[in-house]
């Protein structure tokens, strides 16, 4: 009986490195597919995907602590076309998140579906290029926080209109797009 137990443990100790290797492969595969998992989206009460990006549709848009007029006002966005991410829905109310990670609730009439983005260039302005290429001529310099409208994305670049200018910016410098929005060619 003791000999059988010793043999069983000996076989298990030989399997242990194989099991460890298998576990490492599973974890590596999971880590590599984390972007795909992060991009999994569900449908809200409206039937639209969550999360999704929208923009303010009014010059003044109130953000509340909860989904209703009875909840206290947290702050007010001032400006049209400010990109926000809808993360939940409750009736006519949408829970939003802004580019700084702040969250609150807004009535759906204060929001519109559009491809508005915010430039996140850091402390320095970024060059708006004539073509999707770092060597292309510069059309303008765009400051951090500038708002624009995206028309297409390709090969890590997005064509964007900002004020009187249009051109291309690196996609990773724009807040307001999910990986599945304007999928690259």
Provide the CATH superfamily of the largest domain: SH3 Domains
Strand content: 35-45%
Report the major sheet. Answer: 5 strands, antiparallel
Mean of residue pLDDT values: 85
CATH top level of the largest domain? Mainly Beta
> Per CATH, what is the topology of the largest domain?
SH3 type barrels
Shape: elongated
**Helix-strand makeup class:** alpha+beta
* Radius of gyration of CA atoms, rounded to a whole number: 24 Å
Number of helices: 2
Please provide a written account of the structure:
It is built from two helices and 16 strands. The chain folds into three domains: 2-32; 42-114, SH3 type barrels (Roll), CATH 2.30.30.40; 117-175, Roll (SH3 type barrels), CATH 2.30.30. Strand 1 (42-43) and strand 2 form a beta hairpin. It has a five-stranded antiparallel sheet with strand order 8-7-6-3-9, with no helix packed on it. The chain has helices spanning 2-32, 34-38, and strands at residues 42-43, 49-50, 52-56, 60-64, 73-78, 83-90, 93-97, 103-107, 111-112, 116-119, 126-129, 138-142, 147-154, 157-162, 165-170, 174-175. It is of the alpha+beta class and 185 residues long. The protein is elongated and about 55 Å long. The termini are far apart. Helix content is 19%, strand content 41%.
């Amino acid at each position: 009986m003791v000999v059988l137990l010793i043999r069983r443990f000996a076989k298990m100790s030989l399997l242990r490195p194989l099991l460890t290797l298998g576990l490492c492969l599973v974890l590596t595969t999971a880590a590599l597919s984390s972007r795909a998992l992060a991009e999994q989206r569900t449908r809200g009460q409206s039937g639209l995907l969550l999360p999704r990006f929208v923009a303010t549709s009014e010059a003044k848009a109130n953000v509340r602590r909860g989904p209703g007029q009875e909840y206290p006002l947290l702050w007010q966005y001032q400006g049209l076309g400010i990109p926000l991410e809808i993360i939940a829905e409750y009736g006519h109310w949408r829970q939003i998140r802004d580019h700084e990670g702040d969250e609150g609730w807004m009535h759906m009439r204060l929001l519109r579906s559009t491809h508005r983005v915010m430039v996140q260039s850091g402390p320095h302005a970024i060059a708006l290029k004539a073509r999707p290429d770092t060597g292309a001529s510069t059309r303008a310099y765009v400051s951090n926080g500038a708002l624009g409208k995206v028309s297409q994305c390709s090969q890590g670049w997005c064509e964007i209109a900002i004020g009187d200018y249009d051109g291309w910016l690196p996609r990773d410098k724009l807040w307001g797009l999910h990986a599945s929005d304007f999928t690259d060619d």
